[in-house]
Design brief:
Order of helices and strands: HHHHHHHHHH
Oligomer: single chain
Shape: elongated
Mean pLDDT: 86
Number of helices: 10
Structural class: mainly alpha
Number of strands: 0
Radius of gyration: 25 Å
Strand content: under 5%
Distance between the termini: 34 Å
Number of domains: 1
Low-confidence stretches: 1-6
Length: 251
């Protein structure tokens, strides 16, 4: 059973267990913030709206991770397709062979395997190969797939050495995907550094609470102190969002 929400292609396989887990994590995160900045249940209730922001952000990051994973799988599929074409297979039979290899590499449940299985079913229904790929491109909305489909459709219409052109096209797309993966690796490293830096202010507050509890008690009990902590939380939140925005690089 799936929750009925508007989801894009990369979010369609979300499980209820994943959703519940992220909600629990969000509630825990809100609890930590409330404890550190307000030390009260009222503060916890006031910060609960952050849970919705956290859930929405998680959905976007989930879709991004799924797309990055699919790009790696698609690169492997294209490289396999190029190898099979070099052997002398037709494009239709090459797709069938790639489907078998993707099943071996990633299993039946992998998104790339499902897509190539659907391609094979369309070919078995005598749907033209370029139309089957066009349907694939419309679903995933990836520029690399669209580029491949455009080249394939053009060759089918104009004629020429289709295998040679496809091999060159695949090589170009694979090089692009490889560069993207290298950039993703750098971004992930920077994101890890950002998470560590984001945890430092929390660590400082924990240290002060443990070492100088009487110093922070004024901030939790007096109205002025609560205002100060609220301002600090807003500054922290703004800085965190700004940092995330900087690291959200579209490749």
């Amino acid at each position: 059973m799936r929750w009925k929400t508007e989801e894009n292609y990369w979010q369609q396989d979300m499980r209820n267990r994943d959703r519940l887990l992220v909600i629990v994590k969000g509630l825990g995160g809100v609890g930590i913030l409330a404890y550190l900045f307000y030390h009260s249940w009222i503060g916890y209730a006031a910060l609960l709206p952050l849970l919705f922001l956290y859930y929405r952000t998680w959905k976007k990051e989930y879709a991004k991770r799924r797309k990055e994973k699919f790009q790696k799988q698609f690169k492997e599929a294209l490289q396999s397709l190029r190898t099979v074409l070099n052997v002398g297979y037709s494009i239709e039979n090459a797709i069938r062979e790639v489907k078998k290899e993707m099943t071996t590499l990633y299993g039946e449940d992998a998104l790339i395997t499902k897509e190539f299985s659907y391609l094979v079913r369309q070919l078995e229904m005598n749907i033209p190969v370029e139309q089957a790929w066009k349907t694939f491109a419309d679903r995933v909305e990836m520029s690399e797939v669209t580029h491949f489909v455009t080249i394939l459709s053009t060759i089918k219409r104009s004629g020429g050495d289709m295998i040679a052109v496809l091999r060159q096209t695949i090589e170009t797309i694979c090089m692009k995907l490889e560069v993207q993966q290298e950039i993703y690796t750098i971004i992930v490293a920077k994101q890890m550094e950002f998470r560590i830096m984001s945890a430092i202010p929390m660590g400082i507050i924990v240290y002060l609470k443990m070492s100088f509890p009487e110093f922070l008690s004024v901030l939790y009990q007096e109205l002025v102190g609560k205002v100060v902590m609220t301002v600090c939380l807003l500054i922290y939140f703004a800085a965190y969002q700004w940092g995330k925005k900087i690291l959200e690089i579209e490749v």
